[in-house]
Design goal:
5 helices; mainly alpha; elongated
């Protein structure tokens, strides 16, 4: 017992070596774990800063926490919360379309793109739809399915 106490006091590296051997991990595995640990601490710090920002926005009255229902249902329902990119304010009465998942949404975005007067927006939307169709079409062409009209 006295010997172990003396070893811990004067030769702490021996205790560390014993602990390392108990893990049965290789040095590269230890290095990976250390890298993961450092990255998780960094992410934890980022999340804490983000939470602090949300608390500040709530105190200033600029953050509204919405109560959402988990009730299953069909039809129009609040599934997404939309915020302005410019200032983070919530957008009321917004409707989110997922043209990558829903053929009706793809057609709605397409219809919007061809009727808008905003040339740059039209080009961006058409490029977006083309990319969605290219990615989705790879697996769906075999089945005879497509997102586009």
């Amino acid at each position: 017992m006295l010997r172990k106490a003396i070893e811990k006091l004067f030769f702490p590296e021996r205790e560390l070596l014993r602990e390392y051997k108990k893990t049965r991990l290789k040095p590269d595995e230890i290095e990976k774990l250390h890298k993961w640990y450092v990255e998780s601490l960094k992410r934890q710090s980022e999340l804490a800063a983000e939470l602090k920002q949300y608390r500040k926005l709530k105190e200033e009255g600029r953050l509204k926490i919405l109560e959402l229902s988990d009730e299953p249902g069909e039809g129009l329902k609040r599934k997404y919360i939309v915020f302005k990119a410019r200032n983070g304010e919530p957008v009321e009465n917004a409707f989110v379309l997922r043209p990558d998942k829903d053929p009706a949404a793809w057609r709605a975005v397409f219809r919007y793109a061809i009727t808008t007067d905003n040339r740059e927006l039209r080009q961006d939307m058409m490029s977006w739809l083309s990319e969605i169709e290219r990615v989705a079409g790879a697996g769906k062409e075999e089945k005879g399915q497509t997102l586009c009209p």
